[in-house]
Amino acid sequence: MLVNWFRRFMMGRYGVDQLSFAMLLLSCLLAMFTRGRLWPLSLVGLAVMALAYYRMLSRNISARAQENGVFLRGWYRLRKGWNSLLDRMGDKTHRYYRCPGCRQRLRVPRGRGNIVITCPKCHREFTKKT
């Protein structure tokens, strides 16, 4: 009985997506870390939670899907950068430099002393110690 009522209530509504889940997680983290001591931050957490529920119960599906797409593109860029940083930190056999001309990331072997690096993109040469 209650399940059918909820199913009918949610019909035509947007529901939970990645952005709503992230907002709920953020509001829970804010509530957990503030514990009532920093009430303005607790209010921000409540506002984020209210916005997440507004998004979940919204009937404007195209607008909510567009917001989620913007969030996912930003999240993907952040995750890609973080994973790239972790990969570079774990690589003990190479050094990473940026080309001063085009800002291309270049990987060179470690332990070779001073070497002349040629950028494959803009063909600029520069000297670095590996």
Looking at how many chains there are and whether they match, the oligomeric state comes to: single chain
**Roughly what is the average pLDDT, rounded to an integer?**
91
Q: How many strands in all?
A: 4
Radius of gyration: 24 Å
Structural class: alpha+beta
Q: The biggest beta sheet, please?
A: 2 strands, antiparallel
Order of helices and strands: HHHHEEEE
* Unreliably modeled segments: none
Helix content: 55-70%
Straight-line N-to-C gap: 70 Å
User: What's the arrangement of strands in the largest beta sheet?
Assistant: 1-2
Strand content: 15-25%
Shape: elongated
Determine the number of helices (DSSP H or I, runs of at least 4 residues): 4
What does it look like?
With 130 residues, this protein is of the alpha+beta class. It contains four helices and four strands. The strands form two sheets. It has a two-stranded antiparallel ribbon. Strand 1 and strand 2 form a beta hairpin. Helix 2 packs antiparallel against helix 3 (39-57). It is elongated, with a radius of gyration of 24 Å. The mean pLDDT is 91.
